[in-house]
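Crash report, auto-generated. Payload:
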Amino acid sequence: MSGTQFGKGCHLHLIDGSAFIFRAYHALPPLTRKSDGLPIGAVAGFCNMLVKYIETNTGPDAPTHVAVIFDHSGKTFRNDLYDLYKANRPPAPEDLRPQFPLTRDATRAFNIACKEIEGFEADDIIATLAHQARDAGGRCTIISSDKDLMQLVGGGVEMLDAMKNKRIDSDGVMEKFGVGPDRVVDVQALAGDSVDNVPGAPGIGIKTAALLINEFGSLDELLDRAEEIKQPKRRQTLIEKRDQIELSKKLVQLDCDMVLDFSLDDLELREPDPDTVLNFLTEMEFRTLSARMAKQMGREAPVIPEPTATPAAAAEDDPAEAVPFDAEKYECVRDAEALQVWIDRIRGRGWVAFDTETTGLNEMTADLVGVSLCVEPGEACYIPLTHKAEAGSDDLFGSDALAEGQMDFDTALSMLKPVLEDPAILKIGQNMKYDAKIMARQRGAGFADGITVAPYDDTMLLSYSLHGGEHGHGMDTLSERYLDHTPIPIKPLLGTGKSAITFDRVPIADAVPYAAEDADITLRLWKTFKPQLHREKVTTVYETLERPLSPVLARMERHGIKVDRDTLSRMSNAFAQKMAALEDEIHTLAGESFNVGSPKQLGEILFDKMGIEGGKKGKTGAYATGADILEELATEHELPARVLDWRQLSKLKSTYTDALQDHINPETGRVHTSYVQTGANTGRLASADPNLQNIPVRSEEGRRIREAFVAETGNKLLSLDYSQIELRILAHVADIGTLKQAFADGLDIHAMTASEVFDVPLDEMTPDIRRKAKAINFGVIYGISGFGLARNLRIPRAEAQGFIDRYFERFPGIRKYMDSTVEFAKEHGHVQTLFGRKIHTPEINAKGPRAGFAKRAAINAPIQGTAADVIRRAMVRMPDAIAHLPAKMLLQVHDELIFEVPEAAVEETTETARRVMESAADPAVHLDVKLTVDAGTGDNWAEAH
DNA sequence: GACATCACG
DNA sequence: GACGTACGTGATGTCC
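Recovered output after restart:
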């Protein structure tokens, strides 16, 4: 064929390169190149697929022309049409990114044409080439299963699903879309695509779309004659969403007329050059594959040397055992020359374990004292930066002068900044959010905007993804458990109590082994955990739910929320007055003075002195005086009623109005919480220092505390919360048709439950019946028991059990879900969320009361955890989605997100954020129940909620 | 540092 | 038939 022009009798193969890469990446464990640890799993898989492709494409149907087409990174013209196009797509995993260019190299090494064009997707290039081939009278086979390419089929163009080895022609397209290839675009425009975030027409899927297109002939015709549609909802959608549908069509329509700087003739099939192929495979250190290719091409198999048996190389195979911990080997870096040596090593390696030492635990106020680095197990350094000189005999309280033998602070950070920010160098930390926040606050000559640590892996998050529910994820726990090594304790260095010192007062000689060891441990943990992700099938959880969330949380925490000190202070004084009055009253009622805040003293007053009936409880033998007990007593006695009032005020004052003031950052005037990403076993976040996830709202008096959380002048606080998200998820996972329908119809779900369980028509519903049903609904989520429901509703246990029995009779699917969940936990030792998060249940086979706890936790975890995953996904996507707006995401409260927005942008932010939240499950999971989000705004959190 | 209590979803 | 019990968190004050 050589030298002839593409035309009749020619057969062009177009390979969707990106599909090959992702399939290869997900099919193989995260392999790394032995000599330097470069991730090459996807490249290996890609090459294997190329070889297989070459081997199978012989004979009469073989191609005469071939090209592999890639997506060019960055935005395409479709993003100009619609800024949210493909906005759902998570960024490529960190260990895949460096492999993209290598797949191009591989294609060229096999002497196959390799094409990509900036601003266009691979699909457009494929479309243009397919049309050129067809117009020239030749054949074209597109090797891909991407349905977006189906519009190209026909007139000699076919698709080939390489996985299933199935050809797709016009009939195949008809099967998939219900219309011929020429109307595929019309159907796609209506149906939309959650994967690419093409909006389409809400409520219309492929089936309905095909029906409509077949009835009206074309999309244009359909839109013009939309008035004729009988179904009112559908008609309204098509009329109202016309713009959106037409935009969708533009998004899915491939560009068949690109101007290319090459022709079909340039794609002619060429024999690979043996030297080039083998050189490439050798460089990648693919032993099996290079031997196979060598044999095929009649060459000697190339020799790929095993890495020399240094201790470091041995560590690759057995990270925990190979290199003993040796504090003597840690280096103290004291000048630029020494630091440069480390930086060169890091650049050669492509990754570094990184840890900071600071003067405190609060990332918003602590000062940086030093930095440690580690590139090989056992080989770590500490760079002291702001250690203070040791106290001499004359200055008892320590000098403020810097200790000798430390690098200049600015010089060190200016040298580290390019490394810490280099996208090609992976930073590895334990709880890296802390270190990233510290580094972001460092400013100086050459780093005026702070230092943005990215990209990073976090061993704490790796452990959480792998071992959530099994144990804690602090460094000491992980080191002992997985490295069999007890880290040097910090206590002896800092001391305890009043005499405790900050890290900058620790002598450098003592700081080096402690600090460097932390980086050493972190690197070893990473080497232990990272390869386990794939084996445990939690790569997606880590890469989409944990890793990208960490920097998002860091940013929210750094923003903080404005809290008005005067408001809190005034409330505090008012509470104090009321409490004093109540205290007098209580003492009078008791006939003696005692500490109202002491449950022990209160118990003695109530049950011993006053002789009220009610028993001891608890292992300590003390009387129980919890709110539920006092409430019962309060119906007959005055004193417990007053104590309840006092307790409420005491709680509000001490935990909120007083403590919160101490958390206002003097520099920012705002309160900066810290989210604990690994805090809850279910996947929920926890908030600490201060906890902003438990600010009062249920009582009128408490809710007023939210008035102190305010927006900056000219701004509003915006609150968006998922409506009934856990019940919706329950309806989906347990597959309860009635519940799903109720949500679809927008019914009051508790009233609906009441109506089903108690046989009361909706229009005869009373608030009390509804309240009972609501308690049952929540009980179900928690792993209901007769006892628990009875206590919650304060009804006899038998009656509560009757409710539950009736509920399960009415919704047998729920009991089935609960049983099968517990069964799953017993068999696998974990349960999981819809997004693949594993929650381990080590207690599930325990005996006694612990078994009950474990069972209920196992039932609750997939529901609470899936809801947690959903809002995490929304949070991960939010920064990009609102990047064009002046809005800031400030807080998360499990099913609620709070933003601060300039007044003018409130509406658009609401709309955008709501869309992100409501579609957060897509495309990974399609929920049978839609998620809805309620929104509110105001000058403070009380108004916004 | 354990325990009881209570704030939130 | 008895065991015990609603799920998930964090902060505070008392008491030893």
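Post-recovery validation: Residues 599-600, 618-620, 622, 624-627, 647-648, 651-652, 655-656, 684, 687, 691, 693-699, 702, 726, 864, 867, 893-896 of chain A lie near DNA strand B (CB under 10 Å from a C1').
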